[in-house]
Amino acid sequence: MIYFDNAATSFPKPEFVYKEMDKCLREYCANPGRGSHKISLKSGEMVFETREKISKFFNISDPMRIAFTKNATEAINYGIRGLLEENDHIITTSMEHNSVIRPLKHMENEKNIDVSIIKGNNYGVIDEKEIEKAIKKNTKLIVTTLSSNVNGIILPIKEIGKIAKDNGIIYLLDASQGAGTIDINLKELYIDIMVFPGHKCLFGPQGVGGLYIKDTLELNSIIQGGTGTDSQKLFQPEYMPELFESGTLNTPGIAGLNAGISYINLIGKEKIRKHKYNLVKNLIDGMKEIDGIKIYSKDDYDNNSGIVAFEFEDIESREIGYVLNDIYEICVRTGLHCAPLAHETLRTLDKGLVRVSFSYFNTVNEVSKLLDILNDIRKSLCLRKS
What is the per-residue pLDDT for 227? Predict the structure, then answer.
């Protein structure tokens, strides 16, 4: 089997991750912050160590400004629903995942917020000047992805953040695609809220993510419950990270995330990104030689996070995915990728796209095999037509 669906979740994980999660479950997986015995303290120490590691990874001053969530979608909802009020104006883009669009659409109905969606060009490239033009007197939030999950296009987040800062607007970054591969230095970027999943480019397991909130910003909690702190009080603690960490944390998941970040630190983000880009370049160069394939991803380093989206002009993307999986045991993603507005932008809403997304563990040899198979599919299609 060849796995090319890393934009959905990375697979396989580094051996570090498997070993540390197994160790956690066997040796110290008590409830962190819910006891004074040795095992609970050990799990709590690991959770805090992971906060510190994440802080260093993204250059965040205070580890306590990071709350653990079960995924990026939950974190996005905390950010959006904990911030917006009646009649606020929000700016976002057409390249967002439904994890951003659906909460905003829900808030349109619930709190009468006003949403402006900035459309990208034929590749989904967003012009930050169009975001600036869309600002109104009541604009409270700009929310964008770091990189499109459909075609890998990278947004100009530094420029967008500067626009937000200059206009007194909060900027929320959805770093789901790229956090772990693309360098994010929060001391150099104008980002007020950032969300990230643990299970994609950070090599952690599913079921753990994170929410960063700048220390000058306060959000309302949308879920309340036990935190292991201030237990005598009947109201939710109003400080980070407990404000957003109701209930038992995913302790083995956080241990796995810790190990995943350790692996990235060992290899180096730049080395990982260059490897993924080399695979992207090899695949796109090879596809250009195959008749009938239309490519929707850029092949330059600064505009691709490790994804190649394409279509055969005469075949539904789902059919291509079925053939690759059923006959050749190659795993890709097909369809709309939970981002219909991005497909409207790329004009692929009717057929969807085939998405190949790379990890550090993929190889040039695997790309060569995929190209040979795509050539075979093209030939088979020509024979079927004749």
Answer: 83
What residue type is 18 in one-letter code? Y
Residues of the chain with pLDDT under 50: 383
Res 142: pLDDT: 98
- R_g (Cα) of the chain, nearest Å: 22
What whole-number distance in Å separates Cα of residue 178 and Cα of residue 152?
9
Tokens at 33, concatenated: 């912050």
- In the structure encoding, which two tokens stand for residue 286, read together? 């090879």
CA-CA distance, 364 to 282, in Å (whole number)? Answer: 7
**Cβ neighbours of residue 234 closer than 8 Å, sequence gap 6 or more:** none
Distance CA 241, CA 199 (A): 21
Structure confidence at residue 384 (pLDDT)? 58
* In contact, 16 and 2? CB cutoff 8 Å: no
Retrieve residue 205's tokens: 């397991």
User: Which string of b and e fits 236-263 if b means at least 16 CB within 10 Å?
Assistant: bbeebbbbbbeeebbbbbbbbbbbbbbb
Q: Are the CB atoms for 130 and 118 separated by under 8 Å?
A: yes
Query: What's the pLDDT at 314?
Result: 79
Whole-number Å distance between alpha carbons of 354 and 308: 8
pLDDT for residue 382: 57
How far is the C-alpha of 295 from the C-alpha of 355, rounded, in Å? 10
* DSSP-derived secondary structure for 95-154: T--HHHHHHHHHHHHHH--EEEEE---TT----HHHHHHT--TTEEEEEEESB-TTT-PB
Q: Which one, of 332, 101, 74, 337, lies nearest residue 196 by Cα?
A: 74
Which H helix or E strand runs over 367? helix 364-385
pLDDT in tens, 340-366: 999 999 999 998 999 999 999 999 999
Cα–Cα distance for residue pair 44/225, rounded to 1 Å = 18
Residue 204 contacts by C-beta under 8 Å, 6 or more apart in sequence?
13, 17, 198, 253, 256, 257, 258, 259, 260, 261
- Closest Cα to residue 69, out of 201, 221, 282? 221
Specify the pTM. 0.95
E strand residue ranges, the chain = 2-3, 66-69, 89-93, 114-118, 139-145, 170-174, 193-197, 209-213, 293-295, 307-312, 330-331, 333-335, 353-357
Determine the pLDDT at residue 371: 98
